[in-house]
UniProtKB/TrEMBL annotation:
Keywords: Aminoacyl-tRNA synthetase, ATP-binding, Cytoplasm, Ligase, Nucleotide-binding, Protein biosynthesis. This is Tryptophan--tRNA ligase. The gene is trpS1. CDD domains: TrpRS_core. Its EC number is 6.1.1.2. SUPFAM superfamilies: Nucleotidylyl transferase. It is found in: Cytoplasm. Signal peptide: none annotated. It comes from Streptomyces cyanogenus. Belongs to the class-I aminoacyl-tRNA synthetase family. GO terms for molecular function: tryptophan-tRNA ligase activity. Homodimer.
Amino acid sequence: MTRVFSGIQPTGHLTLGNYLGAMRRWAEVDQHRADSLFCVVDLHALTVDHDPARVRRLSRQTATLLLASGLDPEVCTVFLQSHVDEHTRLSYLLECVAADGEVRRMIQYKEKAAKERQRGGSVRLSLLTYPVLMAADILAYGTDEVPVGEDQAQHVELARDLAARFNQRYGHTFVVPRSTLPQVAARVMNLQDPTRKMGKSEDSGAGVVYLLDEPDVVRKKVLRAVTDSGREVVYDRAERPGVANLLDILAACTGGNPESLADVYDSYGSLKKDTAEAVVEVLRPVQARHRELCADPVYVEGVLRDGAEKARALARPTVDTAYRAIGLLPPV
Ligand code: ATP
Ligand code: MG
């Protein structure tokens, strides 16, 4: 059976980008067709300036929202990265296989490092090694497919390279994974700046729709989305990024196609109105289930405990094999 692994960082409140680009597919498709693991990658949240209490809160909230989005612990494994030591054990071995130059050229590293410097802070070494830990997250489970948004495709490529290199140097140990991207909304853009990805660790929430935003807040954000001075509704991501983003979001929420939807609308106003309602409808069941789950924290804790146990059992043999293959003696 195909093995699927993917993760999400507790760096902020989850966004519509996270949902349309990743989570929705995990719940609707991946968990039913593959042996799949979904992980709140909390160690990755420590790679930038963070408040410990907030990370704890967001880890719980992110796990709860994963379940609210439809992940069923009866058919998939949901857990916290820091509960399974194999991730960091393997990460070190992969650091011994990765070259510093190949991680320095990762786009996310460049962008997030620039942001940290702009804020006057220093860049944590873990921000540089982040994609190596992410490779360990993936490779520890013999993962075939990693369903992610477009922004993570480069990191999955690195995981592929590291797996292939390790196998070549030290003997076959890892499955070489590949990323899978959604057909629409692989990169949901910020509503206030459609040249930038919608991200959960943005400073200002005006251009970001959060999964837990009230319907009226969603409507306001979508209606105020920056478009351009044109009037015609056309799907052109390069020239009309704002309108294209709305069409992508509408298409992803209604199951349509952004190009054909462009023909249906003759004004930005009606496009925005329908997009806002479509988003509200997509979020409604997730929010309702989230409210129920918040009333039952013991259930969520149980899911995470069982998930970590299953994940540990799956990861340990592969990571142990890697330890032996690279030249380390088994403990006596
Ligand atoms: P951060 O700003 O802290 O990096 P993020 O919103 O990028 O947060 P991640 O936890 O890094 O979220 O990524 C979780 C998943 O969501 C990944 O699969 C990523 O590709 C996907 N994703 C994130 N943002 C978007 C987006 N704007 N459009 C589509 N997919 C997205
Ligand atoms: Mg990200």
